[in-house]
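Q: A reviewer asked whether we had any structural model of the full assembly, not just the individual parts. We don't, so I'm hoping you can provide one. Inputs are below.
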Amino acid sequence: MKKFNVAIVGARGAVGKKVMELLVERNFPINKLKLLGSEEGSGIQIKFKDEDLITEQAGKGAFKGIDIAFFCVNKEISEKLAPIAIDEGCIVIDNSSCFRMNKEVPLIIPEINPHDIDFHKGIIANPNCSTIQMLVALKPIHDSYNIKRIVVSTYQSVSGSGKKAIDELNDQVKDYIAGNDISNSIYPYQISFNALPHIDDFIENGYTKEEMKMVNETKKILDKNIEVSATAVRIPVIKGHCESINIQTKKKIDPESVKELLSKFKGIKVLDDPLNNLYPIPITAEETDYVYVGRIRKDFTIKNGLNIWVVSDNLRKGAALNAIQIAELLIDRILKY
Amino acid sequence: MKKFNVAIVGARGAVGKKVMELLVERNFPINKLKLLGSEEGSGIQIKFKDEDLITEQAGKGAFKGIDIAFFCVNKEISEKLAPIAIDEGCIVIDNSSCFRMNKEVPLIIPEINPHDIDFHKGIIANPNCSTIQMLVALKPIHDSYNIKRIVVSTYQSVSGSGKKAIDELNDQVKDYIAGNDISNSIYPYQISFNALPHIDDFIENGYTKEEMKMVNETKKILDKNIEVSATAVRIPVIKGHCESINIQTKKKIDPESVKELLSKFKGIKVLDDPLNNLYPIPITAEETDYVYVGRIRKDFTIKNGLNIWVVSDNLRKGAALNAIQIAELLIDRILKY
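A: Here is a predicted structure for the entire assembly that you could use as a starting point for your response.
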């Protein structure tokens, strides 16, 4: 069985760490793992399986001999480093939003559009966390009933903003208990005991970039004819994003058939027995691979309307897991064992 | 100026306490205040202005000589005590859901349907917290543009479940910091660092009673032709409910005109300058009387679509303040000064 040389750029961040963890968990065919980061972040010892790896600076020469690099950094760093990596013969799986809407770059959710990977030119983009879990849940519904329009409101955890945001929430909660003043630096306001309708930057049309990612990535991945109206909100949860999704389909839809359809779809777990308090919640999704769907019910206010509630671990299926599944798909369809 | 004998039933709960506080703050024309509660809750000394009041047991005889009673208890207790109070000549302003949909009972938001109070037969119902803030925000929009359909997802604080729920969240956060196991009794799961798509009981159609309150109360208060599709979610916030609201109107609508319209409406404060991080959040709304509206933007996916984000203190405008405003309206229109 062929093994591959793999690099992680940004190995010490929340997503980078999760990629390392999942490479072991999924027994990914690794020959050599290289951990790359900033200049200040290099020279640090990190354990991987039985080895002690030392982080190295990402830059020219760092990607020579590497087959696949997981980029777990922001879009500015991705933009700078991806061309270098490609030049040195490496395939980049990029977690940032940098290349997602680039027509030359496939944007992949393996359960939805695996064959798009065949057209890659060195970069494969991993979609936004909120988009991934929404589209996994909606793919089987769209295939059967043809979705026209989506109205979605998100409930997103702080881990989506990285390790420092998790620390900020923890610190704020500690200060609250101690009766100290609460300070903030990652978010414009305290996130503890609060809710912020503000994820990523605002643009001129009044939406945030996060909201527009859900609009545009849905069109690129699932169907360009689907209209999405999104409101993205940060809440004081550590891991796991929730989404309240309202859809209208072209074909007649009923909740019972949808439940059955979703139950059969790979990667989805239906939790929907509300009278017994069974519905998806972040603490159930935490550290698991599934996209959980519940509260599946008819929207009585419109023809062919449906409401669902979707929860998933944003660091796993929303980021690291989907990136590794892309790498597995790449090996399966292109690099071959 | 005429003064009134007032009673608070459930004076030691979260809403009851807030009613007491607001009676002072608003300089309500009180002659005598009587604090009523359960048998176990009687005989307790509570300060009101310069007086030390002693709680008494609610029941037969307790409402004699009382003009207005604020009922801040659950619907079972309201159902039992309201007929007694009426019988003893007292007008009941009820915070529970017990009488809201009763055709003989006016359901009042003073900014919206003040004249409905004229038909009262002894009970006036205070609407659900989530309904009040949504309808205050939507009233001026409906008057100008005629709302056809609302899709709303809520982000509700624990104070909506009363004082014990605030204690439960605080205890859970303390246990989390101390590294102890987290226990729960008010909610079916931990609420700290979590989100529960479950407020009040589930009914057969898959919705919760909380969600159906938003549907039915909107029709009774604002317009029976408005369709509401609701998802109600509890999040770990102490005070202040948020709502992500998507509407479609019959008339052509544009965000700038809506912003102007809302700015002029009594009880609303528009906070909408996202590029300067200005949007409503729970910690801004806490302990204030306004319904805050922001993120006012066109929904590009539908004809005459609009998205808004609404936040208000659920114990104030969502409960105690609206109840007192009903009492003020009652004095103004019926009891007279």
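A: Points you may want to mention in the reply: Chain A has two domains: 4-128+319-335, 130-314. The CA atoms of residues 157 and 237 of chain A lie 5 Å apart.
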